[in-house]
Design brief:
The complex is a heterodimer of chains A (113) and B (112). With 113 residues, chain A is an all-beta fold. Chain A has strands spanning 4-7, 10-13, 19-25, 31-37, 43-50, 53-57, 64-70, 73-78, 87-94, 103-104, 108-112. Classes of the chains: A mainly beta (113), B mainly beta (112). Chain A binds chain B through residues 4, 33, 35, 40-45, 48, 55-56, 58, 90, 92, 97-99, 101-107, and chain B through 2, 30-31, 33, 37, 40-45, 48, 86, 88, 92, 94-95, 97-105, 107.
Amino acid sequence: DTAVSQTPKYLVTQMGNDKSIKCEQNLGHDTMYWYKQDSKKFLKIMFSYNNKELIINETVPNRFSPKSPDKAHLNLHINSLELGDSAVYFCASSQQGGVDIQYFGAGTRLSVL
Amino acid sequence: SQQGEEDPQALSIQEGENATMNCSYKTSINNLQWYRQNSGRGLVHLILIRSNEREKHSGRLRVTLDTSKKSSSLLITASRAADTASYFCATDAGTGRRALTFGSGTRLQVQP
């Protein structure tokens, strides 16, 4: 039973399109995150939600909009995709806030052509 | 530059050898964590060490923390081919301690 699952695993799309990535965790955690991992493997926090409330928004373009319908789900919608958005996006969750151990999904590799 | 910078960026060793990776950070922390990422997969938590701890063990892993030097090291003893992965340290000092800050990792290749 996958603890943190995100779909799709791969996403190939054209510039200017809008796409969504879904994430679900069955660990009963209160906090969920989206990270972006670039080609150099650097992992950067994008958003954090605690019990459906936005906690962190790390200067991400407003083309990125997270949505948390309940504390087990955190989806990421991206409008008007750009070439620079190509990366691997990871969802994660933790029992409490950011200093707690985090559990990661397998990642979504987004390629913008 | 970022919190949690790993050194070296890449490391290649033979099976059975020990692998040591280092991490440096810039501001005070409450804890430091190490994660492993296999190719094409998500990160997996390995070990957490608190700021008042100097050393911690978990199986073949040994982590040390020197808060005076703002550095940590991860030692993998008797490495195996299956240890091939990227290893990241993460600190809780970023974003007002509301999130972990990761470095760019050390890519470890263990040759069978």
